[in-house]
Every structure is written in C-alpha cells, then in structure tokens.
Fold:
Amino acid sequence: MDKFYHSVRLDKDLCKGCINCIKRCPTAAIRVRNGKAQINSKFCIDCGECIRICPHHAKHATYDTLDVLKQYDYTVALPPPSLFGQFNHLDDVNIILNALLRMGFNDVYEVGAAAELVSEATREYLNEHKEIRPVISTACPTVVRLIRVRFPNLIPHLLPLNPPIEVAANLAAARAMLKTGLPREKIGIIFITPCPSKVTYVQSPLGVEKSQVDKVLAIKDVYTQLLPHMKAVRDVSVDLGKAGKIGISWGRSGGEASGLFTESYLAADGIENVIRVLEDLEDEKFTNLRFVELNACNGGCVGGVLTVENPYVSEVKLKYLHKYMPVAKSHLDEDAEAFVPWTAPVEYEPVFRLGGTQQESFTRLNQVEQLLKKFPGLDCGSCGAPTCKALAEDIARGAATEKDCIYCLRQNINKLSSEVSALADVIAEKQVRRREAVAILREYITKITDEMSLLDNQGAWNSGEHHNENETEAHETE
Structure:
C-alpha cells in the first residue's frame, strides 16, 4: 500500500478556486493553481481541516457504505467512544450496542474496551521506560503522521503501542473465528469512524504492516440508521458493554491521559495547538512531563469531521454517560498482550526537504531567502500558496515562478511601462531610426500584453472564473 495513501480527496467540479483551504491547512499541503485546488500527497496528514473549512464542499473523505455488511458471512461492528457522544439523553451504552445488532451486524466489540487494555499497557510502559520523557500518545494517526514527516527528533518518544482501533480489530476477529469457525476472509471487522484520519490508518497503517480492520463506515452515516433501532431496543437491551469510565473517556481530549493515573501529563487538541506543543517538545521545554496526549481534532475524537454533534456538547454527554460506570471493565491477559505492541517501526519521511541532498537543500534555502526579500510578505494567498515563504519554496522546487506573485507581476509591468515611456522620449528627440523604434516598441508592447494577461488570469483564478481541465492534482475524486 502507498505510504502516502489519503482518504481526503478533492472534487474538482465543486472547487471554486477560493483560498480558504490553503490558509487552513496546517502543513501547507494545498495550492490553488489554474483556478483549482491541488493537494500535495506527501505533505497531507489527513487532518480533515480542509473538509471542515471548504464552503463549497469540494473536499470530502472516502469511506465505505452500509452495503459492505452484505460482503461478509459474519460482521463485527467496532463502535468508538465518540459514537456514544452523538446521542441525546443516552444513559446506557447497551442501547447503542444492541441497536447495532438490529441494524445488521452479527456482533459488536467496543473500541473503548480495547482502549482500557491500551491504557493498562501504557502504564506498564511508562513504569518500564522512565528514561523516556515525555512519551507521546500514538492513538491519533494524524499526529503520528505529522511527527513522521515534520518532527523526526520526536519519533523515539512515540508510544510503541497500537491504537485501540487496531487492538479491538484483532480481538474481535479472533473471537469471531473462534465463535463461528469461519475463516478470517469471511469475517468483516467494520470500524465506525469519527474522522478521515482513521480511514487512512486502515489503508496505510503505522506501527503494523496491515490493519485487521476490513471496512470503515462514517459516524454520520450510521447515526441516522441507529435512531429507529435505539427506540426498539431501549427496554429490551442485553448487557453487552465491556468498557468502563477509562474506555469511554478516550472519546474526548484528556481522556486517554486520565486513565494513566498520573498528573504529569499534557493534553492538547486542535491541530494548530498540537503543532505548537510539538514545536515546544522539540525545543525540550517539557522535559519533566511523563506523557503527552495529542488529538488533531478540537475536543478530541468527538470533534472529527465525520461526526454530527458539536464536539463540546459531545464531551458533556460522555461525562454524563460514564459518571456512574466502574473505572474499568476490561483488563490485559496473555491473549490481548500479543496484539498491543507495534510490530513495525515508524520511520522519518523527509518530505519537506528542499533538495535531494544536503548541498542542494542549502542552495535552495539560500534561493528562498533571496526570494523572500523580493516578496511583500503579506501572505495574501493571491499566488495560490498560503504564504510568501511557501511560494518561495515552490519556486525553489521548480513548482512555481516569481510571476505567480501578483505584486511582483505588477512591479514588472510598472517597470516595463517606465521603459516604454523613456523610449518614447528618445524617439521624440529623433535619436532612434523609425524602423528600429517601431520594432523596439512592438517588443515592449508584447511583453506588457503578456504580463497583463498573466495579471488578468491571476484575478480570474482567484475568483474561480478560470478553469484548466488538463490540470492534474495529487488527490482527485476516485
């Protein structure tokens, strides 16, 4: 599987060429070229912020439909804690779990139950590796991908344990095979995701060679299907819940860290805040912390773009739901321990380097610094890049030109106009032969016309009026 697989895609037909997404993207992975957005697959970390911000709904996440239930002889639903935070007045997780069975699943396995196993394994890891400070959670795939491409010095601090989704998938598959006697390929392990990041994880996991999750549904699709079934099972639900307070808490920011029984932790949510924390960690500002929990979405997993409820309202609902639950209902045993540790290392991917070699990178970095002296430093986005620095780096990589900057283009036009004016003065003084003067004037007029055409196109592209159907992009609708 491509290590730069992505679940966030662009629909060119809906894209209007506005610059909302390029300003929001935390890794500067998006450009607007010829009136259409383009996503650099090497820079993208599938945080979903472009989906959240796009007013034209041109960005979307790819995931499976409910029809996948028909593809297997036996299906197991993996509901995450964030799913429980979507419903009003929910006081018993068994209502959701039984409704999933009525919806068509043959079995359910709470991701929250697996989260309690990961919490227990994390506590053991912290006790056994006190020399590593701090340890960074690996539950959010977007954060792991961000560290992999941008913060290589922090890779040794990553918690080498599988996220709950993977642990749950392994345990659910083992239980289903034992219960049914069916071979693994006839059993469908189906995760219900709050975000596109976990879709990407399933297709291109980090920490394991292959994920045991077979298909991924979106919470927003499952939500509407569950509502009528929840009414039907409210008074006849069977006790299926295997997660306690610790497991359910994983759905919100700070929930994972709270299950470690330590006060020496930091929890941050929202991709901009995550990046600031990682920068501070790289500068060794938090050397005494034991654990750092980072979630790319505001509020944690309840803030994923594939959910339906306000994330902060969902947080309140989860707190209410687990208020009278036991601390934990699932515990590590020998069978589960085998599924918790990573089986493949996470390696640095230097996608942001300007050159293939160190010498080339230094040369291009110098070019970037020289270009920044020419640019106005307004970070206006008119060039299709989020900042002047991003444009300069694009130019250094050969992916853009100085004329993409509308201010540089205007300066060049003004320069040409001044030269034409000076030439006209010379001609007026009869210091140049007529034929030679006409040829020079035509050359200047052609240059000015070309520059004006570029300037007009810049304005058309930024307003979404100019389209180039031959333009290619890293992610496009499949």
Observations:
- The chain has a mean pLDDT of 89.
- The longest helix spans residues 434-463.
